[in-house]
């Protein structure tokens, strides 16, 4: 068995890379835009695409309608030096990111472009659209990839991040992935690069199938307060759990977040108890974050919560219960009453520059 | 109107999993198995729709080894009318599951499919979207609220998306995937558990449904994630701030 294991882990990667090295890699990044610019998570998908192989030709697909789409396309063309083309689908069918028209769009763009890979970020947009498009193309997608080895081997977390699974894609093109944005940070240099401007072209929608389009209609969107940095990409995250006891007390977390320039997160218990809206939930079923500093207050550290923050660089836990599992992953733990600790922190933390 | 609900048998959510020493997977022998929590929510929603007089029958479907019948019995005890077990061995990936479901849709002709948004073992979050794509039905994923209009054959679905909630209106037939906040699943009572024993579970093989069990994915290995190095317990807020400033350099 030991020999078999050794064979599995060492021989196969080399074997697979030699098969695929000669093939051309071309990637379609299914991108999301907002307010006239491409989202950071989609730029991370471009960064991930770079790892698929040298000489990868990367096309970015944007869809929507109106002037904000054109602005976003211009932004996409210069947001990352590795992008070789921006494809734009301009139609009111794409005004809202409904899965039915989007999957159809990915389908026709793939038929024309014959990409070897299609990538999107593993957020609510990518997870909604990509599997549907994959079904239309009759391939198995791979969710939430955190590491890429060559063009066909990928690592993804399973069991709430308690195991890492390396999978090899053996099917036909395209290989479809959603990637975990926090695992593919975009270097500041490439984010600011304006040196190369990729050409922008319009997608020909004449062959666009209307099959399931129109069977779903957008009604409304209620967005949460967005004054603070985005939870998914914040440098500092402060999270409250059941220990906060009430929505009123959660205001302390907001004050602390303000002082640190942080985003506020919450555990499922805090969301279920109605302290905060559910889009602040960090964990297996909520958002996955990997900030520089993660501070957990009154969080016990359930498996499902740890899944969402275990890759943070520095973890701080404040909890009354010295046996709380959160202390097993915390770099710095403080056993104490958060109602005393938070005010003291507010008083003593240095002002944000 | 008939509702089809999928129920997956997974390692219980509270179990701390162990990776096998040979890296071939996760230890499932002698480990507590339960219905995937998101599937419980899917079934609960289907039962509530039926209890509101909007559906006539709730059919629970499970695929995999013979033990999946236990999971189906749990579903029947919660209130599903009957079960379907598609017996298959080996790894079943969402694409195959979606194809089997599509074949069952042709047999059962449901107007609504409700599935959990993800299974807590493979964490794929794909099956609902894929079956919707194969059927050409609209999809309402990550649902936290579902309202059915029987006369107009519409489902209004409130979805949990990044940054808030989104409401969609879907023409039936449709596929809905459930988020955690959709409802609080009921417990099966003892009389219902007894009653469930006499409910029908129909068996199919993938061959009977003309679905080939194959995969374009191959698991190379399964490993434990890197362990974080042990941290320290600090004695006061002052020490904490000092460490964050001068040792970790994060503030």
UniProtKB/TrEMBL annotation, chain A:
Q: What is this protein called?
A: Electron transfer flavoprotein subunit alpha
Q: Keyword check for Electron transport, yes or no.
A: yes
Compartments (UniProt record): Mitochondrion matrix
What keywords would UniProt list here?
Electron transport, FAD, Flavoprotein, Mitochondrion, Transit peptide, Transport
Q: Which InterPro entries does the record associate with it?
A: DHS-like_NAD/FAD-binding_dom (IPR029035), ETF_a/b_N (IPR014730), ETF_a/FixB (IPR001308), ETF_alpha_N (IPR033947), ETF_asu_C (IPR014731), ETF_asu_C_CS (IPR018206), Rossmann-like_a/b/a_fold (IPR014729)
Entry's family note = Belongs to the ETF alpha-subunit/FixB family.
Listed GO biological process terms: fatty acid beta-oxidation using acyl-CoA dehydrogenase
Organism equals Manihot esculenta (Cassava)
From TrEMBL, chain B:
GO BP term, example:
fatty acid beta-oxidation using acyl-CoA dehydrogenase
Where the record annotates domain Electron transfer flavoprotein alpha/beta-subunit N-terminal, the positions are 23-213
Compartment list: Mitochondrion matrix
Provide this UniProt record's keywords sorted from A to Z. Electron transport, Mitochondrion, Transport
Q: What is its main location?
A: mitochondrion
One MF term in GO for this entry? electron transfer activity
Q: Which Pfam families match?
A: ETF
> SUPFAM superfamilies from the entry?
Adenine nucleotide alpha hydrolases-like
Q: InterPro entries annotated for this entry?
A: ET-Flavoprotein_bsu_CS, ETF_a/b_N, ETF_b, ETF_beta_N, Rossmann-like_a/b/a_fold
GO cellular component, as recorded? mitochondrial matrix; mitochondrion
Query: Superkingdom, according to UniProt?
Result: Eukaryota
User: Which PANTHER family does the UniProt record give?
Assistant: ELECTRON TRANSFER FLAVOPROTEIN BETA-SUBUNIT, ELECTRON TRANSFER FLAVOPROTEIN SUBUNIT BETA
Q: What does this protein do?
A: The electron transfer flavoprotein serves as a specific electron acceptor for several dehydrogenases, including five acyl-CoA dehydrogenases, glutaryl-CoA and sarcosine dehydrogenase. It transfers the electrons to the main mitochondrial respiratory chain via ETF-ubiquinone oxidoreductase (ETF dehydrogenase).
Instruction: Cite the record's note on assembly.
Output: Heterodimer of an alpha and a beta subunit.
Q: Which family does it belong to?
A: Belongs to the ETF beta-subunit/FixA family.
- What name does the UniProt record give this protein? Electron transfer flavoprotein subunit beta
What organism, scientifically named, is this protein from?
A: Manihot esculenta (Cassava)
């Amino acid at each position: 068995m030991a020999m078999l294991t050794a064979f599995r882990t060492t021989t196969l990667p080399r074997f697979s890379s030699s098969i695929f090295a000669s093939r051309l890699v071309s990637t379609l990044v299914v991108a999301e835009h907002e307010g006239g610019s491409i989202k950071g998570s989609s730029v991370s998908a471009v960064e991930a695409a770079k790892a698929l192989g040298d000489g990868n030709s990367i096309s970015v697909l944007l869809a929507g309608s109106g002037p904000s789409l054109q602005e976003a396309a211009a932004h996409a063309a210069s947001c990352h030096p590795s992008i070789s083309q921006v494809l734009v689908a301009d139609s009111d069918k794409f005004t809202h990111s409904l899965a039915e028209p989007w999957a159809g769009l990915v389908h026709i763009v793939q038929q024309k472009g014959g990409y070897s890979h299609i990538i999107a970020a593993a957020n609510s947009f990518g997870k909604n659209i990509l599997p549907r498009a994959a079904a239309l193309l009759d391939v198995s997608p791979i969710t939430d990839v955190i590491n890429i080895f060559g063009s066909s081997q990928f690592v993804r977390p399973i069991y709430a991040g308690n195991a890492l699974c390396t999978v090899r894609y053996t099917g036909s093109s395209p290989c479809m992935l959603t990637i975990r944005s926090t695992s593919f940070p975009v270097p500041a240099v490439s984010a600011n690069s304006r040196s190369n401007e990729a050409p922008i072209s319009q997608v020909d929608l004449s062959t666009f199938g209307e099959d399931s389009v129109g069977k779903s209609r957008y009604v409304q969107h209620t967005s949460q307060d967005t004054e603070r940095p985005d939870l998914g990409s914040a440098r500092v995250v402060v999270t409250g759990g059941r220990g906060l006891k009430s929505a009123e007390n959660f205001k302390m977390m907001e004050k602390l977040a303000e002082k640190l320039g942080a985003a506020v997160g919450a555990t499922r218990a805090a969301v279920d108890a109605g302290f905060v809206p559910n889009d602040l939930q960090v964990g297996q079923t909520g958002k996955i974050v990997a900030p520089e500093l993660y501070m957990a207050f009154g969080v016990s550290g359930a498996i499902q919560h740890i899944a969402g923050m275990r890759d943070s660089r520095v973890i701080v836990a404040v909890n009354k219960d010295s046996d709380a599992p959160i202390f097993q992953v915390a770099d710095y733990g403080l056993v104490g009453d958060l109602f005393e600790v938070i005010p003291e922190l507010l008083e003593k933390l240095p002002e944000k520059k | 109107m008939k509702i089809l609900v999928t129920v997956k048998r997974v390692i219980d959510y509270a179990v701390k999993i162990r990776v096998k020493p040979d890296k071939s997977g996760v230890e499932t022998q002698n480990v507590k198995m339960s219905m995937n929590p998101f599937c419980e929510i899917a079934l609960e929603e289907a039962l509530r729709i039926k209890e509101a007089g909007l559906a006539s029958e709730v059919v629970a479907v499970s695929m995999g080894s013979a033990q999946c019948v236990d999971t189906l019995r749990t579903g029947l005890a919660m209130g599903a009318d009957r079960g379907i077990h598609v017996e298959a061995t080996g790894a079943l990936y969402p694409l195959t599951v979606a194809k089997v479901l599509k074949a069952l849709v042709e047999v059962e002709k449901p107007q609504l499919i409700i599935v959990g948004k993800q299974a807590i073992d493979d964490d794929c979050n794909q099956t609902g979207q894929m079956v919707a794509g194969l059927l050409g039905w609209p999809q309402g994923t990550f649902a936290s609220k579902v309202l059915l209009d029987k006369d107009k054959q519409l489902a209004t679905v409130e979805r949990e998306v990044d940054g808030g909630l989104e409401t969609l209106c879907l023409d039936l037939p449709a596929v809905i995937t459930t988020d955690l906040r959709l409802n609080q699943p009921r417990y099966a009572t003892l009389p219902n558990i007894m009653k469930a024993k006499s409910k029908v579970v129909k068996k199919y093989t993938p061959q009977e449904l003309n679905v080939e069990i194959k995969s374009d994915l191959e698991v190379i290995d399964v490993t434990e994630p890197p362990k974080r190095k042990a941290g320290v317990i600090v004695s006061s807020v002052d020490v904490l701030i000092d460490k964050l400033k001068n040792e970790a350099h994060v503030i």
